[in-house]
Design goal:
Length: 137
């Protein structure tokens, strides 16, 4: 296994950038020799977080994805220069409520929280920084 595999990618904050993200993640997963299940989970989480910026980050000029494997963890950092938005401040969706009565949205971050070891948001230097750690093995 590679000692330190890293990916750094700067994209336009729009849905059209997602295929490039997924291609680069696939190449990263191959180089890092990630098991298919881990690679799939990483792709789902990264896609959801980048799509979140595309949908909610009006005014953002970029979204940056930095991914590094450290030991048994995959450290994913998503940075954008859009307005301050802490997705972790959103209440978890009420999954007991009938679908028709639920608030729209919010399932994405709820879904991501269940797939990662940790998720942390901070606003720094005029940017949103969302850091996730996933299991690599």
């Amino acid at each position: 296994m590679a000692m330190s595999t890293q990916l750094a990618l700067r994209l336009r904050p729009e849905a059209e950038a997602v295929p490039e993200l997924l291609d680069r993640l696939e190449a990263f997963a191959e180089e890092a020799e990630l098991p298919p299940g881990i690679a799939h989970r990483l792709a789902l989480v990264a896609e959801e977080l980048v799509a979140n910026v595309a949908m909610h980050g009006q005014g953002a000029s970029f979204v940056e994805v930095v991914l590094q494997q450290e030991g048994d963890g995959l450290h994913l950092l998503i940075t954008d220069d859009g307005p301050a938005f802490d997705p972790l401040a959103e209440a978890a969706p009420d999954t007991d409520t009938a679908l028709e009565e639920r608030e729209i949205g919010g399932l994405g971050i709820h879904f991501v929280r269940k797939m990662v070891r940790s998720l942390d948001y901070r606003r720094q230097d005029g940017c949103n920084r969302l850091a996730a750690v996933l299991d690599a093995g």
